[in-house]
């Protein structure tokens, strides 16, 4: 059985959940999520696939642990920041973690995060939003709106434009110049070098919208008391 490089640094170490998860992450990073199997992970670790089942009852359990690993790699915002800046920090950190694990992110994007680690992560984000938005319903809706934006942006950067043309016969630049002048003019702003500015624009739009809604909420509550 050939051993691949991800296990060379741990050769001779006992098998553990942590080593298995890291080997699985290495496998996905090198070869993609679609080919991940317990057998391929075991090959990396220099063991039989059945040995992995002592730590993970199924491949799904391993995938859950890999998503948990991504969540635990996400930095928490410093406590000394103002609430709105802590929320902004968390939004940028979401994107940073997606780009840290680009091959894994498509799974992270659709995983329901209903593991203990996952629901605690959701709770932490809701708490950040509630610190800014003093209304249960509005905070819940902004939780979803922010999630829509971050998920879409991260998928685009890790699996969309990051991967290039996806059509079987993509049109060429001449076709776009001739048929789609609006797209031709905008396309220069779609390049990877512009992603930071575009992401910042979206984050600022959400933060500004939250500020407007919170101000309107406060005005309505004051009016209701008079």
Tell me about this structure.
The structure is a single chain. This protein is mainly α and 226 residues long. The chain has two domains: 5-57, Arc Repressor Mutant, subunit A (Orthogonal Bundle); 76-225, Tetracycline Repressor, domain 2 (Orthogonal Bundle). It contains eleven helices and no strands. The longest helix is centred in the last third of the chain and has 31 residues, at 195-225. The radius of gyration is 22 Å and the shape is flat. The mean pLDDT is 93.
Write a brief structural summary.
The chain is mainly α. The chain is built from 11 helices and no strands. α7 packs across α8 (136-160).
Question: What would the keywords be for this entry?
Answer:
Arc Repressor Mutant, subunit A; single chain; 0% strand; 2 domains; Tetracycline Repressor, domain 2; mainly alpha; 226 residues
């Amino acid at each position: 059985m050939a051993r691949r490089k991800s296990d060379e640094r741990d050769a001779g170490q006992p098998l553990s959940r942590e080593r298995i998860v890291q080997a699985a992450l290495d496998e996905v990073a090198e070869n993609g999520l679609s080919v991940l199997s317990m057998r391929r992970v075991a090959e990396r670790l220099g063991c039989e696939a059945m040995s992995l089942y002592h730590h993970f009852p199924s491949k799904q359990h391993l995938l859950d642990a890999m998503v948990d690993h991504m969540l635990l790699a996400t930095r928490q915002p410093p406590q000394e920041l103002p609430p709105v800046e802590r929320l902004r920090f968390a939004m940028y950190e979401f994107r940073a973690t997606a780009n840290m694990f680009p091959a894994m992110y498509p799974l992270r994007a659709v995983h329901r995060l209903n593991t203990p680690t996952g629901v605690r992560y959701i709770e932490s984000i809701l708490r950040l939003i509630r610190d800014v938005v003093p209304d249960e319903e509005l905070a819940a809706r902004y939780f979803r709106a922010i999630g829509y934006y971050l998920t879409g942006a991260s998928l685009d950067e890790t699996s969309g434009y990051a991967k290039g043309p996806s059509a079987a016969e993509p049109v060429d630049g001449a076709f776009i110049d001739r048929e789609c002048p609006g797209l031709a003019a905008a396309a220069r702003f779609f390049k990877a070098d512009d992603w930071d500015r575009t992401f910042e624009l979206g984050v600022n739009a959400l933060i500004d919208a939250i500020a407007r809604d919170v101000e309107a909420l406060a005005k309505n509550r004051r009016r209701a008391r008079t």
